[in-house]
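User: Please fill in residues for this 947-position structure.
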């Protein structure tokens, strides 16, 4: 079977528009052409010119009687006609110019006549009682005497090309003319067209000015239709009433409270505002939600998987890891640990970063990850706002001020955990239905980037610190020695350091040296003017107050900031860009071109250029890393120092997996996504001043609305039954209505097609495969698919089939053993470009990669529908290269078969395949390990290839 290619020739036609301009007929334009208004409307050749022309003519040339020029006999007739037309136009222009000149002279005479009449009415000494002399016919070389005007008269002078004479008007006449000129025309009967009604336009105007997206517009239209049809009532009459309703509904959740703290700094005491909701109050709201009751996992457990020879333990959720198990082991009999995952980080609210926010966010460790890391009920929540301390130029970098900011952070955060401090010791007896537990709350994970982790651990960060790791006491100069494991920080050994620093008789300098050796920060709370402190007191870490909480162990490896925006974004990527730019413009253009040609994949950012743009988003660097695969063998000519904390941080990654489960449990990505809601509220719901209360009120209202919305959905489900949800992904950009109608065809629990085309004869698909009907018949026969009578099914070229553009395939993940889903496309137009995704095909010889060419269904005479795909297999022979083995590449090449027809059920999952631009004619392709499942599958294939 061979893929038959066809080409289409496109042609474009171009038209030429020829335009002419009318001649200007005013005096000024004629004078520019060398003409005078007083020239008579005739034209003759200059004396002697015609005779001179005749002296140089021959039998083959003739002289034009109009212009006096000689021309070849062959072209003389056409010239003579054209010249006659030009002469005629010129005569008309001269006649009109003469008329204009005469009109101007007549107007001048009339004006002079009116002036003499006005002067005659006044009277003179030489003409008393006698007649007033009329205008003289004698021409004078002086200007006529101007008319007498009143103060305030308006003179209007038009451009000469308009052909309009100047005029003088009184102010009243000018205003009346202006008012009449600007009187608006009569409006049309239906000014809102093309909108059908005035209300339709009003709705469209509001939707556009409010920047409503498609989802919001659809929801609002549905609401209006519901009210208009009489199914429900709308009773809100004003914004004030709406605000009162929101305030009434806010009782669903614990509100934020404004509190103040006082922290001494140098010779003053500074006040700071903190907006906070106690963590336990927030947890109580979660426990009271009946929707979450079936999902709680309060008991710690251990999971094992049989490998064929032994039981191997694995960890995924936090309650399957070590920390919850260990905490439950030390609790009193019947005690249940309740773990919090806490995140805090400053964020820029305004475009220029002048307005910042400092939200504190939290999640419950004992809810499943799809709920915990989601955006709905049981997901992350903002529980407060830490003070944002402005650092002036005078205080920038000062040790005392840096220490002061650390102290403010810990003093403010204590307001979030005051109740937990007590309950961690006494427990909390919960008597809710189905939740009869004695809870002991603690902090199981602290999630933050490196800068924020230094605040939480209260250490000195950066290169100047002797021990700048918040997790252990590794020396700053030894961060790249990952095979060496330093002593971990614990509340006990760090408290011992503070005790040593606060020893009686220690000077401030001596105490600071003790803290500095361990990378700790601390600031005496007494008078700093003295050099000695007999009773030196240093602010302690706020998390030391919580029983069963080890803040250093709770600090978690952050893949997003350590790898994506850290190691890659801050270090590897700048080095890569410098190497590319050093190679010249051609290299930059080549890299950008190849980045733009990288295949589109759901969930990955597609870059049009990557060299000369800057990214501030770690998610973009994560997506960019999928396009890059290289080795760092040497630092380069600049001798870059790779000894920094983020290189060292992943040494603690394996410990975190054992203690807290998979990295998704403590990744900052789900928390950082919540910054978007704050920025949106800042732009749309605040007055840009004193924004803390405004933003937190908006977040509280949104959370309450989410609960009420869920209540309504539960009500509808209970009374009306469960409705099937639409596909999560848009099937095809050519058919926006496809997802609003029932167009999905589900064949089993794994495969479903979407975005159907109109039915067509099977023969129309034979541009891909000759005798396609025979191949389809063969596939049905091989699969032993028979008619209901037991006969073989034969498919003809004129049988109707339906082609599809969208494929949804589910598979069991090799990483989690849970079901994952790929959304694939096979369409000639995806946002203006052709898109043919790749898949893994299950064959008797093992899995192979292939490119989707066509997806279609064929319905037999019995009414049974069978799905098929036409693919281009990429299982051609590949010569293993040492470079591929070293760099972890998995290369594929086209098969000897151009195309194959297969049942859609043979698809295992989707694959991201990109061309090898270095191979001849791009015959080779690389398979990208863009997710953990594909990473595991490719590792197995690589082992087989390079063994």
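Assistant: Residues filled in for all 947 positions:
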């Amino acid at each position: 079977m061979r893929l038959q290619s066809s080409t289409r020739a496109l042609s474009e036609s171009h038209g030429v528009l020829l335009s002419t301009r009318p001649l200007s007929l005013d005096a000024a334009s004629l004078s520019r052409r060398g003409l005078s208004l007083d020239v008579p409307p005739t034209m003759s050749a200059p004396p002697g010119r015609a005779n001179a022309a005749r002296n140089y003519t021959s039998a083959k040339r003739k002289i034009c009687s109009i212009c006096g020029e000689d021309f070849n006999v062959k072209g003389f007739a056409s010239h003579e006609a054209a010249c006659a037309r030009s002469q005629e136009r010129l005569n008309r222009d001269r006649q009109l110019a003469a008329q204009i000149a005469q009109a101007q002279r007549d107007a001048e005479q009339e004006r002079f006549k009116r002036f003499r009449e006005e002067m005659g009415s006044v009277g003179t000494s030489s003409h008393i009682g006698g007649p007033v002399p009329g205008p003289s016919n004698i021409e004078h070389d002086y200007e006529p005497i101007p008319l007498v005007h009143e103060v305030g008269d308006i003179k209007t002078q038009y451009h000469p090309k308009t052909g309009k004479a100047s005029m003088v008007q009184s102010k009243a006449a000018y205003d009346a003319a202006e008012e009449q000129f600007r009187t608006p025309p009569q409006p049309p009967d239906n000014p809102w067209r093309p909108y059908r009604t005035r209300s339709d336009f009003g709705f469209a105007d509001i939707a556009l000015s409010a920047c409503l997206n498609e989802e919001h517009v659809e929801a609002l239209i549905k609401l209006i239709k519901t009210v208009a049809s009489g199914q429900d009532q709308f009773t809100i009459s004003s914004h004030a009433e709406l605000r009162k309703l929101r305030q009434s509904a806010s009782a669903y959740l614990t509100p934020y409270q404004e509190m103040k703290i006082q922290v001494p700094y140098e010779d003053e005491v500074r006040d700071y505002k903190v907006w906070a909701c106690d963590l336990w109050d927030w947890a109580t709201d979660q426990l009271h939600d009946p929707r979450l009751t079936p999902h709680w996992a309060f008991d710690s457990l251990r999971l094992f998987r049989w490998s064929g020879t032994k039981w191997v333990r694995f960890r995924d959720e936090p309650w399957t890891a070590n920390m919850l198990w260990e905490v439950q082991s030390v609790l009193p009999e019947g005690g249940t640990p309740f773990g919090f995952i806490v995140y805090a980080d400053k964020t820029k609210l305004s475009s220029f970063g002048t307005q910042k926010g400092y939200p504190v966010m939290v999640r419950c460790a004992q809810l499943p990850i799809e709920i915990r890391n989601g955006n709905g009920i049981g997901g992350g929540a903002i529980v407060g706002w830490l003070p944002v301390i402005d650092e002036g130029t005078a205080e920038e970098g000062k040790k005392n001020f840096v220490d002061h900011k650390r102290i403010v952070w810990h003093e403010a955060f204590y307001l979030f955990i005051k109740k937990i401090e007590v309950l961690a010791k006494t427990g909390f007896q919960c008597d809710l239905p189905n939740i009869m537990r004695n809870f002991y709350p603690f902090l199981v994970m602290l999630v933050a980037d490196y800068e924020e982790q230094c605040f939480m651990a209260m250490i000195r960060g950066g290169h100047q610190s002797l021990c700048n790791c918040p997790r252990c006491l590794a020396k700053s100069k030894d961060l790249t020695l990952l095979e060496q494991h330093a002593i971990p920080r614990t509340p006990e050994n760090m408290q011992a350091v503070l005790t040593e620093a606060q020893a009686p008789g220690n000077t401030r300098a001596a105490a600071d040296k003790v803290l500095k050796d361990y990378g700790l920060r601390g600031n005496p709370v007494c008078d700093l003017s003295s050099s000695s402190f007999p009773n030196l007191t240093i602010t302690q870490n706020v998390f030391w107050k919580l029983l069963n909480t080890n803040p250093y162990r709770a600090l978690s490896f952050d893949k997003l900031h350590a790898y994506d925006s850290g190691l890659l974004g801050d270090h590897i990527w700048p080095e890569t860009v410098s190497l590319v730019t050093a190679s010249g413009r051609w290299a930059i253009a080549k890299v950008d071109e190849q980045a733009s040609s990288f295949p589109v994949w759901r969930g990955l950012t597609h870059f049009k250029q990557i060299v000369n743009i800057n990214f501030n988003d770690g998610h973009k660097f994560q997506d960019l890393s999928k396009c890059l695969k290289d080795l760092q063998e040497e630092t380069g000519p600049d001798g870059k120092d790779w000894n920094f904390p983020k290189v060292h941080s992943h040494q603690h990654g394996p410990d975190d997996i054992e203690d807290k489960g998979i990295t998704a449990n403590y990744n900052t990505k789900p928390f950082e996504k919540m910054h978007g809601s704050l920025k949106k509220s800042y732009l749309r719901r605040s007055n840009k001043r004193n924004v803390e209360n405004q933003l937190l009120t908006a977040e509280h209202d949104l959370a309450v609305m989410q609960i009420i919305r869920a209540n309504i959905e539960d009500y509808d489900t209970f009374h009306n039954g469960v409705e099937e949800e639409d596909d999560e992904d848009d099937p095809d950009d050519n058919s926006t209505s496809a997802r609003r109608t029932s167009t999905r065809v589900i064949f089993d629990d794994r495969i479903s097609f979407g975005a159907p085309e109109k039915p067509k004869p099977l023969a129309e698909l034979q541009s891909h495969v000759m005798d396609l009907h025979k191949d389809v018949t063969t596939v049905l026969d091989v699969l032993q698919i028979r008619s209901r009578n037991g006969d073989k099914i034969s498919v003809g070229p004129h049988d109707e089939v339906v082609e599809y553009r969208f494929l949804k395939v589910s598979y069991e993940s090799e990483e989690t053993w849970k079901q994952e889903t790929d959304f694939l496309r096979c369409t000639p137009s995806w946002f203006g470009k052709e898109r043919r995704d790749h898949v893994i095909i299950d064959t008797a010889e093992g899995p192979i990669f292939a490119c989707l060419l066509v997806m279609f269904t064929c319905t037999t005479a019995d009414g049974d529908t069978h799905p098929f795909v036409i693919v281009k297999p990429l299982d051609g022979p590949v010569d293993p290269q040492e470079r591929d083995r070293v760099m972890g590449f998995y290369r594929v090449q086209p098969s000897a078969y151009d195309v194959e027809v297969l049942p859609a059920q043979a698809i295992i999952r989707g694959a991201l395949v990109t061309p090898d631009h270095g191979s001849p004619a791009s015959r080779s392709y690389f398979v990208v390990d863009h997710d953990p499942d594909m990473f595991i599958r490719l590792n197995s294939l690589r082992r087989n290839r390079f063994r």
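For context: DSSP finds 27 helices and 29 strands in the chain.
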